[in-house]
Amino acid sequence: MTYQDENYRLIVAGKNGDNDALTKLIQSHSELVHSVIYSILGNRDIVQDIAQETFLRMISAIDHYEFKAPFRAWLIRIAVNLCRDHMRRKKVRRIITGFQRSDEQQQEREFIDKSQNPHKDLIVQERMEHLQSALLKLPSQLRIVFVLRDIQDLSYDEIAGTLNWRLGTVKSRLFRARKELAKILSPYREDFK
């Protein structure tokens, strides 16, 4: 059974009230959703909350899913929209309070296998921190399209459908995102070889 067939079966069962099917959908897409959210927001503290909200919205909207777009793209759209909402709320709070956010780039990445060579682990961790820091400097639309294409490996068509953008818009924003990232990461060029 293919990935699409299994998703189809689980979605239909979920639409018919099968909570186990919904749980399996959540489990099979949990890593993807967490990764997208972290890549967009760069804040480990909020990832779990937004992922939970993503899956709650998935469950409440599953009856409206019509199989027109791939399920993965539909689910990512929910997560991306919640990330956008979070960024808007955060911006409003910052304007109202006048306080600056604390520096989140100092948070550790926990995705690295500690059993590997410690020196190599440190290099990989530094690269990931540079990349995450650079991503956070991009405007949100450029960051989102870069994450979906170059980190999550969605096709241009999936991204266009997910974000409700034209294909040309996806390509031009991805080009701009890559160009901006290259400029931001240019001091670290040797680290990425």
Instruction: Bin the strand percentage.
Output: under 5%
CATH superfamily of the largest domain: RNA polymerase sigma factor, region 2, helix turn helix motif
Which fold name is given in CATH as the topology of the largest domain?
Rna Polymerase Sigma Factor, Chain: A
User: Secondary-structure element order, as H and E?
Assistant: HHHHHHHH
Average pLDDT rating: 81
CATH architecture verdict of the largest domain: Orthogonal Bundle
How many DSSP helices? 8
Q: Major beta sheet, specifics?
A: none
Rg:
18 Å
Poorly predicted runs of 5 or more residues: 92-114
Instruction: Give the number of domains.
Output: 2
Observed structural traits:
193 residues, mainly alpha, Rna Polymerase Sigma Factor, Chain: A, globular
Per-chain topology:
Blueprint: H1 3-15, H2 19-41, H3 44-61, H4 71-97, H5 118-137, H6 140-151, H7 156-163, H8 167-185
Helix pairs in contact: 1-2, 2-3, 2-4, 3-4, 4-7, 6-8, 7-8
What does this structure look like?
The chain is mainly α and 193 residues long. The chain folds into two domains: 1-105, RNA polymerase sigma factor, region 2, helix turn helix motif (Rna Polymerase Sigma Factor, Chain: A, Orthogonal Bundle), CATH 1.10.1740.10; 108-193, Winged helix-like DNA-binding domain superfamily/Winged helix DNA-binding domain (Arc Repressor Mutant, subunit A). The protein is 73% helix and 0% strand. It is built from eight helices and no strands. It has helices at 3-15, 19-41, 44-61, 71-97, 118-137, 140-151, 156-163, 167-185. It is globular. The relative contact order is 0.11.
